[in-house]
């Protein structure tokens, strides 16, 4: 078993930097931040198994050791972390409050251990995250160019904006490209470009392509909805959402485009995604008449301030800005 020692001040900064500041929780954490890795591991295992004996088996230690570690944590906190009865063990109110923070902290320590084992200079690793659609229709050519120009180890992550920003705050990403500006004091963002949304459809959906469509006409057509982030989502709810029940709602661009291409349907797509399908004739663009103009969305390069001078990040930023 590898034991990770973390200095009290470092552990405090880890929690303060990753989690939103919550005074009662932070006061609780400052009391226990100099406990060893094994104490946190034991606390989480007992919380998950609800059994001292199963926790001992899981961690390959004695039941007495489990009991001692939990007592040491509780003494440090000054509160009971578990409620014990004859049948099971469950988290107390204080334990429930501490659990998500302990779990997150342990995950970060394990991730740090893996990074340390790689034996590669930090500046030679570049971890980037983005939406699947932005990867497919924007970022991949830049990644190919970056590989040709450098010897960096590249790590890619996909997901929605919230997951990307969480990974950025956790230190698992160096940068992400997302359609939302950052609102955290530790993060910075650079607007890369703006794009509009287009109503697109299979060319086989209509015998005669309409000059335009309205929200009322959408109600009679096989419309697919994907909840693109604001400001589009706000516009959709205001102009269309209360009057339209979509035939299908999805949360993945790949599924959306497959349905459009194979099942004679229509949907709103960002220009970045729609462009190549319209140029190839696989989809057609249809003007949409609404009460308010369809808003554009901005795409941002978001990064943690501590990474702003990393050589790998600077090369990536330069490449993006030169091609936008």
Which helices and strands occur, and which strands form pairs?
Layout: H1 8-18, H2 23-32, H3 37-49, H4 52-59, H5 63-77, E1 82-84, E2 89-91, H6 93-117, E3 125-130, H7 132-149, E4 153-158, H8 161-170, E5 175-178, E6 187-195, E7 197-201, E8 213-214, H9 215-218, E9 224-225, H10 232-239, E10 248-249, H11 253-262, E11 266-270, H12 271-280, E12 284-285, E13 288-289, E14 297-304, H13 311-323
Parallel strand pairs: 3-4, 3-5, 8-13, 9-10
Antiparallel strand pairs: 1-2, 5-14, 6-14, 7-11, 7-12
Short description:
The protein has 324 residues and is an alpha/beta fold.
Description:
Residues 1-22 and 28-32 have low confidence and may be disordered. This protein has a 5-stranded mixed β-sheet, with helices on both faces. A 3-stranded antiparallel β-sheet has the order 11-7-12, with helices on one face. The two termini are 49 Å apart. With 324 residues, the protein is an alpha/beta fold. Helix 3 (37-49) packs across helix 4, helix 4 crosses helix 5 (63-77) and helix 7 packs across helix 13. It has 3 domains: 8-117, Winged helix-like DNA-binding domain superfamily/Winged helix DNA-binding domain (Arc Repressor Mutant, subunit A); 122-194 and 298-323, 3-Layer(aba) Sandwich (D-Maltodextrin-Binding Protein, domain 2); 197-295, 3-Layer(aba) Sandwich (D-Maltodextrin-Binding Protein, domain 2). Helices cover 48% and strands 18% of the residues. The longest helix is centred in the first third of the chain and has 25 residues, at 93-117.
């Amino acid at each position: 078993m590898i034991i990770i020692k973390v200095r009290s001040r470092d552990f405090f900064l880890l929690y303060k930097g990753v989690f939103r500041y919550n005074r009662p929780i932070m006061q609780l954490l400052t009391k226990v931040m100099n406990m060893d890795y094994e104490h946190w591991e034991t606390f989480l295992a007992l919380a998950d198994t609800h059994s001292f004996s199963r926790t001992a088996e899981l961690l390959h230690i004695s039941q007495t050791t489990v009991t001692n570690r939990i007592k040491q944590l509780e003494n440090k906190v000054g509160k009971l972390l578990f409620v014990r009865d004859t049948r099971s063990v469950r988290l107390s109110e204080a334990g429930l409050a501490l659990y998500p923070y302990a779990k997150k902290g342990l995950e970060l320590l394990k991730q740090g251990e893996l990074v340390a084992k790689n034996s590669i200079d930090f500046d030679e690793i570049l971890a980037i995250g983005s939406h699947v659609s932005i990867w497919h229709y924007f970022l991949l050519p830049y990644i190919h160019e970056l590989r040709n120009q450098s010897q960096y180890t590249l790590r890619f992550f996909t997901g929605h904006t919230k997951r990307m920003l969480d990974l950025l705050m956790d230190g698992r990403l160096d940068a992400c490209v997302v359609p939302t500006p950052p609102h955290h004091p530790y993060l910075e963002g650079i607007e890369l470009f703006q794009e509009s949304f287009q109503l697109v459809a299979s060319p086989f959906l209509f015998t005669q392509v309409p000059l335009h469509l309205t929200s009322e006409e959408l109600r009679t057509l096989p419309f697919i909805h994907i909840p693109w982030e604001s400001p589009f989502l706000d516009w959709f709810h205001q102009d269309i959402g209360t009057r339209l029940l979509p035939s299908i709602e999805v949360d993945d661009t790949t599924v959306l485009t497959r349905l459009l291409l194979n099942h004679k349907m229509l949907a709103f797509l960002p220009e970045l995604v729609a462009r190549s399908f319209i140029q190839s004739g696989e989809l057609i663009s249809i003007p949409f008449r609404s009460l308010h103009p369809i808003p554009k969305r901005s795409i941002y390069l978001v990064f943690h301030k501590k990474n702003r001078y990393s050589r790998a990040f600077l090369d990536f930023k330069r490449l993006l800005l030169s091609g936008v």
